Write a sequence for this structure.
């Protein structure tokens, strides 16, 4: 059983650039979630998918953020025109029933 | 909206002692409460959970209690070991997880 994987693990970008992160969930899990975590805080919900349908988006998810899960398997999170405030750990989780399993995260640094 | 308060923010214990972390939630409709352990540079790891139809659950040195009337739930770690040192998060789950702010646990050997 391979767990949730995320790529890349680290990303450094300049302000104004676009970045895209990928998440591969546990294979039989139909729900996939994105969270953002800043230093010293708990993860904050961004959005989630059931299969390929995006069912909920947080108010934290500005129009610069977009997420997809085109075939109900892996998901991508894109941030356009990055800002320094976007610097954070972006976490992906998946589940089949109550109980979400997290990946190692992608650490984004915006210079 | 949903809110989870977690206390204490930091906790230092001597190896072998017990550690208790407490959380309070606001959403009466929540019925699933997981606890996560997060080590530096890693994603949160689910360590134990409890559903609202159960008052207590135990897994080796870890136990969780739930008081649904008071909207409190707690994590108990007995016989702490240095490898228990990490940040612990409680959460409530109503479709999405709402996390507490975390507790930094330091186990001194």
């Amino acid at each position: 059983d391979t767990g949730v994987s995320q790529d890349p693990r680290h990303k450094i970008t300049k302000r104004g650039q676009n970045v895209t992160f990928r998440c591969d969930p546990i294979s039989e899990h139909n729900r996939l979630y994105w969270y953002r975590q800043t230093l010293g805080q708990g993860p904050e919900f961004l959005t989630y998918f059931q299969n390929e349908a995006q069912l909920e988006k947080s108010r934290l998810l500005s129009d610069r953020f977009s997420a997809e899960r085109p075939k109900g398997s892996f998901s991508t999170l894109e941030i356009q025109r990055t800002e320094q405030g976007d610097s954070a750990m972006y976490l992906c989780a998946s589940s089949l029933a109550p109980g979400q399993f997290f990946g190692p995260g992608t650490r984004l640094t915006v210079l | 909206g949903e809110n989870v308060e977690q206390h204490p923010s930091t906790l230092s214990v001597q190896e072998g002692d017990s550690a208790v972390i407490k959380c309070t939630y606001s959403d009466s409709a929540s019925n699933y409460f997981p606890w996560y352990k997060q080590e530096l540079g890693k994603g949160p790891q689910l360590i134990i959970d409890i559903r609202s139809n159960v008052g207590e659950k135990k897994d080796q040195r870890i136990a969780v209690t739930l008081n649904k009337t008071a909207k409190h739930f707690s994590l108990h770690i007995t016989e702490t070991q240095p490898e228990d040192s990490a940040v612990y998060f409680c959460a409530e789950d109503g479709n999405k997880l709402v996390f507490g702010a975390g507790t930094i646990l330091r186990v001194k050997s």
About this structure: Chain A has a mean pLDDT of 95. Chain A touches chain B through 22 residues (CB under 8 Å).
